[in-house]
Amino acid sequence: MPGIIHLKVQVKDRTKYYSAQQSEELFSDQQQNSINIRINPKLIASAVRDGYLTQLAFYYFLRYHYKYSNISNKRGNPKRRIAQLSGLSQPTIDKYFRILIQRDLLKRTVHGYQLAATTPRHRRFKIAVSPAPTVSEIKQLLLCQVIRDCGQQQLLVRQLKNFCLPIEKQDNQLSGTSTPNASWSPYLSVRYLATKLNISCNTVRKLIRNLNERCVIRTVSSYSELIMDNVTPDVVNHLYGYHGHRYYKNGCIFEVQPARHTFLLQPIKPKPMTVKRYFAMQKDNRLRQLVNNERKTLIA
Question: Does residue 34 come out as left (phi exceeding 0), alpha (psi in the -120 to 50 range) or beta?
């Protein structure tokens, strides 16, 4: 089901990459102890754009501990207990409460506080967390959800471009006819993710490293490849059709593809691109413009 991300315990092995087999073993051991939290992807995107994702992670932290969304004050100030559960200071909790109230995610009542309902009823998105999650862990899972959405958008764009090609030149993986359980691993650079997540490049690197250690994703970096030799430096500005970073060195042009991220516990599976689905997607103005530009490129 889309929107489900499983959080794994942090293991002692500090290697950068993990195999899918190791991830499946860790996932099977931890799956029974995980607890689901319902999320709203549109709310996450809004929080990333407006810069209150940490407060939103704190909101889901409260949803985890207060099943019925009522934070009662009958036993005294509830913020003291929340401080003990989260490990946050009292001024930090006061600040988070104030921001959540401004965002209409929390409201005061006679008996304490009431958490607002944000999950759409027609579609259910969930993340699976460990039995005692922290605000930082939940925030990393929310960011991972945004990364996965970027991967799905990249897959959709490539499927549309692939569908415009002749049948003999189409990629079976992108068309969804290669294997039933095939998954797509998107190419996402650190700079691109920093722009989408509204954080710095160093924070993105730290996030990717933590997600790899928890076996949520597997990241594989690419190496430099020679794409052209015996050229001048100004040729780099006139290359088309190449994706990734290009640089000039010793009369040659090299290319470095972005890192490839495989979602181990929630793979991105391509849906078959049919004519009906193709024309349905053209109702979106941005996708229609993309297809028209691709057709002009093929005709040229």
Answer: beta
Q: What is the pLDDT of residues 192-246, one digit of tens each?
A: 899 999 999 999 999 999 999 888 889 988 777 777 777 777 766 656 554 566 7
Q: How many domains does the chain have?
A: 1
Q: Is 87 helix (H, G, I), strand (E, B) or coil?
A: coil
Greater model confidence, 94 or 221: 94
Asked if residue 30 belongs to a domain, the reply is no
**What is the C-alpha separation between 82 and 69, in angstroms, rounded?**
14
Tokens of 62: 């409260």
The pLDDT of residue 205 is 93
Q: What pTM does this model have? A: 0.76
Check: CB of residue 27 under 8 Å from CB of residue 112.
no
Residue 277 to residue 72: CA distance in whole angstroms: 49
**Which CATH number belongs to the domain containing residue 105 in this structure?**
1.10.10
- Give, in order, the Cα–Cα distances in Å from 41 to each of 53, 107, 228: 12, 22, 42
Task: Report yes or no on 63 lying in a domain.
Answer: yes
Residue 62's CB is within 10 A of a number of other CB atoms, namely: 22
Q: What is the DSSP letter of 52?
A: -
| Start-end of H helices in the chain | 20-30, 41-50, 53-65, 78-86, 90-102, 135-164, 172-175, 190-197, 201-213, 275-281, 285-299
Is residue 300 scored above 50 in pLDDT? no
Report the C-alpha gap between 185 and 133 in whole angstroms: 27
